[in-house]
Q: What sequence folds into this?
C-alpha cells in the first residue's frame, strides 16, 4: 500500500511516500480503506518532536527514543471497512466509517487497522469522507472538555482559538448546550466564528478579553496561549478554566489553583469512546454540527500540508484526500 512515512524526527521534509506492507486485521481489529484523513497540529508536533516538557520522556519512549518507532502519522480517518477480525461484531465489510486513531496514528496511508474498541462509528450520511475525517480530533476534544465544565443553559462560555480545529467544534457544541458563546480569534476569521453560532467575537489583535472586565463561567483555551493568572481572574466563582494544550507551568498552577480555590482548572488529556463519536454523528445528521475545512491536499503534497499546519493559522482543519 502507499503510505507517508518518516524515519527521523525533523522538519516536514522528513516525510516521504513509499510502499508499505498492507496491515492484516487481528481477531479484534477492523481494516479500513482510508478515503480521507487530516493533518493535525498533533501530527506536526510528533513529526518534529516538540511536545510539552511534562510528557517529553513518556512520549519519546512510546514513539521511539532515537528514531520513530511509529513511522506513519495521521490521527483521523474516514473510509470503508474492507475486512474484520473473527471476533468483530460491531462492523462489517462495506461499512462507511470515521474514526480517531489516537496514539496509534497510521491514517496517512491507504489502509489502517484499528481495534474494535477504538472510537469509530458509521460516517454521517450528510458528510463527505473529507468532512467526516475532520470531526474526531476536534469534535471529541471539544466535547470532552465542555462536558467536564458541566455547561448549563444561559452560562457564559469563552472559546480562545475559536477558529481552530477544536475551537470550531467548541463554539458549536457550547451553543448546542445553550450557552452564550464568545469566540476569540484573528481578524480574518471573525465571520467564520460568527457563522458557527458565536454570540460575540473578539479580535485578539485589538482586544484582550482578560482586561475588558467581563467574567465567564467557562474559559476554554484550545491553544495554550492565554495568560493563566488573568484568565483565572476573568472567571466567575466556581468557574472552569479548560486547557486543551497545557504546558508544564499551566499544569502545576492548574493543580494548585483547583486544590486551593473556588475555580477549577481542567487540563487532563481527553478521554473518549465510540459513544461520544456517535453523539457527534447524531448532531451532524440533525444539522447541529459541521466541520470546517480550510485546505485540501492530495497525499503527494503532504509536506506542503505539514508546512501550512505548522504555521498555526489554519481555519478549522486541513484534509488529505483522495487517498
A:
Amino acid at each position: 500500500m502507499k503510505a507517508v512515512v518518516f524515519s527521523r524526527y525533523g522538519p516536514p521534509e522528513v516525510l516521504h511516500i513509499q510502499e508499505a506492507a498492507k496491515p492484516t486485521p487481528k481477531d479484534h481489529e477492523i481494516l479500513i480503506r482510508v478515503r480521507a484523513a487530516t493533518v493535525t497540529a498533533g501530527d506536526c508536533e510528533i513529526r518534529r518532536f516538540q511536545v510539552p516538557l511534562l510528557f517529553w520522556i513518556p512520549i519519546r519512549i512510546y514513539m521511539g527514543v532515537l528514531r520513530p518507532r511509529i513511522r506513519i502519522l495521521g490521527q483521523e480517518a474516514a473510509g470503508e471497512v474492507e475486512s474484520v477480525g473473527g471476533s468483530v461484531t460491531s462492523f462489517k465489510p462495506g461499512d462507511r466509517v470515521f474514526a480517531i486513531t489516537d496514539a496509534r496514528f497510521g491514517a496517512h496511508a491507504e489502509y489502517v487497522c484499528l481495534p474494535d474498541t477504538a472510537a469509530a462509528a458509521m460516517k454521517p450520511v450528510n458528510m463527505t469522507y473529507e468532512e467526516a475525517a475532520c470531526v474526531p480530533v476536534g469534535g471529541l476534544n471539544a466535547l470532552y472538555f465542555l462536558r467536564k465544565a458541566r455547561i448549563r443553559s444561559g452560562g457564559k462560555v469563552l472559546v480562545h482559538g475559536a477558529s481552530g480545529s477544536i475551537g470550531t467544534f467548541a463554539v458549536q457544541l457550547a451553543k448546542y448546550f445553550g450557552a452564550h458563546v464568545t469566540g476569540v480569534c484573528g481578524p480574518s476569521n471573525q465571520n467564520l466564528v460568527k457563522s458557527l453560532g458565536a454570540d460575540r467575537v473578539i479580535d485578539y489583535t485589538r482586544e484582550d478579553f482578560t482586561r475588558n472586565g467581563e467574567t465567564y463561567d467557562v474559559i476554554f483555551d484550545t491553544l495554550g496561549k492565554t495568560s493563566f493568572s488573568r484568565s483565572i481572574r476573568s472567571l466567575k466563582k466556581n468557574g472552569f478554566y479548560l486547557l486543551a494544550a497545557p504546558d508544564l507551568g499551566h499544569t502545576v498552577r492548574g493543580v494548585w489553583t483547583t486544590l486551593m480555590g473556588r475555580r477549577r482548572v481542567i487540563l487532563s488529556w481527553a478521554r473518549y469512546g465510540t459513544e461520544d463519536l456517535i453523539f457527534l454523528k447524531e448532531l451532524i445528521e440533525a444539522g447541529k454540527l459541521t466541520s470546517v475545512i480550510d485546505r485540501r491536499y492530495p497525499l503527494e503534497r503532504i509536506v506542503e500540508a505539514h508546512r501550512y499546519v505548522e504555521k498555526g493559522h489554519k481555519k478549522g482543519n486541513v484534509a488529505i484526500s483522495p487517498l
